[in-house]
Amino acid sequence: MLRGDEQISQFTQPANSVNNGNDYTTSWDITVDDSIRTWSKDTRTTITVSYAVPAQTNGPCAVPDPLGQVDCSGSFRMYYSDEGGEPGDVYANFPIYVSITDPDSNLGKTSLGPMFFIIPFLAVTLLLGWISYREEWMTGEISEEKEPFDINTWASNSVEKINPLIWVPSSIELTRNSSKEWRKGGDLTSNKTRRIVTLCIMYFAQGLPWGFASVVFAAYLVDNGTSAAEIATLFATVALPWTFKWIWGPVVDAVFIEKYGPRRQWILFAQTGMALSLGSLMFIPDLNGQIELVTRILFVHNIFASLQDVATDALAVEILQPDEVAKVNGFMFAAKRGGIIVGGAALGVLITKIGITGVIAAQLALLLLIVFIPLTLREKPGVKLFPWSKVDAILVDTENNEAINEEEEESLTPWADEAEFRVAKNVGYNVSATNVSITAFFVITGLCIWFIGFAVDVFTIDWKVGAVFSSFTSPIAYISLGLALLLFLIQLVMKNSDDESNESKLPEITNPFSILSIGSRNTVARTSFYLVKAFSIKSALLLIGLCLLSELYVFVIPITFDIFVNDAGWSPAKYSGIVGGIVVFGGMFGQIFGGLLGDRYGTRRVAMVGFLALALANATLAFLEPLWTRTTLMTIFLIIQAFIAGIAWICIISLSMRLTWSKVGGTQFTAYMSLFNLSGVFAYGLTARMISIFDYSSAIYVGAVLTMITVIMLIFIDETETDRVLEGRILDDEEWVEEDPDTDLGERPEWWTAEDLEPSTS
């Protein structure tokens, strides 16, 4: 056996020296080592067989269609053919697996050894140890409000909770009471069971398409020949709407028909769009051959999915009571994970029985079924389900309304009393004023034009209309911003000039926002003021950088698809069942455990340790390269990796909630999440470039090193700064002690004031 000019193995068996010259079946034992295990794609491998007489098998295993009764399975087979001349030729079929890590298959690529990861890992570990020593992680006293951890008490409570004699009757009673309350009816604000179940189902609907797209559909495409680079493009495209979902926040808040429920109508619109876009995939005969069209459709599908996410979060903020926010958000998160499991594992198993079209139809049926939940439930008192529906009478307390209006009037211009955050104050004044300086005019105009052009370009993907429209808007926006910068410098020079005659202000012109009503303009001004003020503190600014850098390592994810489906030989159904099933459970338990750890030891501390451990877990995939074909071992690895990632990411999300100001909770927190998504989109765009430079193992090491950036960024972030500076819940000489783990927006009951609990009349 030769690989190019190199002889790898040799086996000699004269045909007429055994069995009296009759047909003889023999075995060729080839040692599988590093030289024989893999070949590069373009290397010619030759098997030379010499016989004294033409050799034949018991039956022809001709390529490509062997006889039905002939067993042509196995790794190696020979067959005789008389089509190649006299006295005949012997052909051999030997499956050659191209290794993605073999040096010969990565000619011209950079190969990095494990030391590329080990050295920075040890350096960051020492740095983290020094930080823990300086901040006294191990010697810090436990708060008086938290009881010291006792293993005996914990074990006793755990045994009691898992005792069927205790939890089974409690579960039955809880189910009975919940069913009874559901049948009572009423709107979501007055029926606890209905609002919890509704929100959980909405989050389940969000997880369902993501599990399908990221596990089942991706594995299907890889199995049908789609490259890792194309998968990366698909991932980057479908994740793009989630990156810019903050666009929907102001739209959902401002555009609605009050009598039909402000949130419910957006949820119905988004779910209908999700169903229609997903159903259109069933009319594409060759999903793999028309990957560009499929990518566009999934992009539109995720536009509606991101819209539903924002509308559902807004609904949750509106209908949840202060004392149930944390608990219900835990249920909602678990429901979303359940949707991912169903979309990834359950549908992945069905694909072998009903095909990809059948799986899409099954998911479509589930989405249409979920639509009936918001369609038949009232959001709050006074809203109508349909135009012909009756509305219950609502009693209004005139005196309370007057008091509310007075309070609202006092808070219409919060920037007027602002003394510390000057930038936020100027933003509030300039957005709300009828006339603004010419500098502010060009700033507002430039940003609005850029935003409109950018939005059109993003949401038309790569269609020409978006590029053409952006080609006009971008130069205008840049010119406006450039003029604003020039005028600002002129104004600065005039202000600092000793000549008093130059102290006159630049002329004022009409505010571009003056086309809005006074109420709408003040609403935009308040939101802008609060948002700028929220991002003005140091830790919030640093968190922006962390969000943009924390997911750079995910460019490795498309590579893992190729590793497990092609190199390790996992079938799409097997991959979907493992990664979309048991691995998701590992991540879920990691998030639950991470929340408990973050509550006890602090989200920042646990996140730092968690991301350092995640970096090691990511690098371990490259360490285990010789064992990639060991299904059991790799399954255990994936579960552990997901568990660690769950711990790290739940604490980062909780930290983001801690650094979110309640005045702009939805907008600021959504902005953080959008920046996380933007980081992932950028990382997926790096995949093709990375695999063109590095071999797969080296690319994995690079991803593991990038994982540790988050650890370094967290060193400079103070998780209590927003609570201390903006919320006023912590004095400078006090230490924050979390009572409950942060979940959605971190709005625990003690955060709510009487003003927050009053209904809005705007």
Structure description:
The relative contact order is 0.10. This protein has four domains: 1-99, no CATH class; 109-133 and 555-659 and 695-734, no CATH class; 183-385 and 666-693, MFS general substrate transporter like domains (Growth Hormone, Chain: A, Up-down Bundle); 398-531, no CATH class. Residues 14-24, 32-105, 141-146, 393-410 and 731-762 have low confidence and may be disordered. The termini are far apart. The protein has 25 helices and seven strands. It has a three-stranded antiparallel sheet with strand order 2-1-3, with no helix packed on it. The chain has a two-stranded antiparallel ribbon with strand order 4-5. It has a two-stranded antiparallel sheet with strand order 6-7. A hairpin with a 7-residue loop joins strand 4 and strand 5. The radius of gyration is 32 Å and the shape is globular. Helix 6 packs antiparallel against helix 17. The chain has helices at residues 34-37, 115-134, 151-162, 164-184, 192-223, 228-243, 248-254, 264-280, 291-319, 325-375, 398-410, 422-432, 438-459, 464-496, 518-534, 538-549, 557-567, 572-601, 603-623, 631-658, 665-693, 696-707, 709-714, 721-727, 754-757, and strands spanning 2-3, 6-7, 45-46, 77-81, 89-93, 435-437, 508-510. By secondary structure, it is an all-alpha fold.
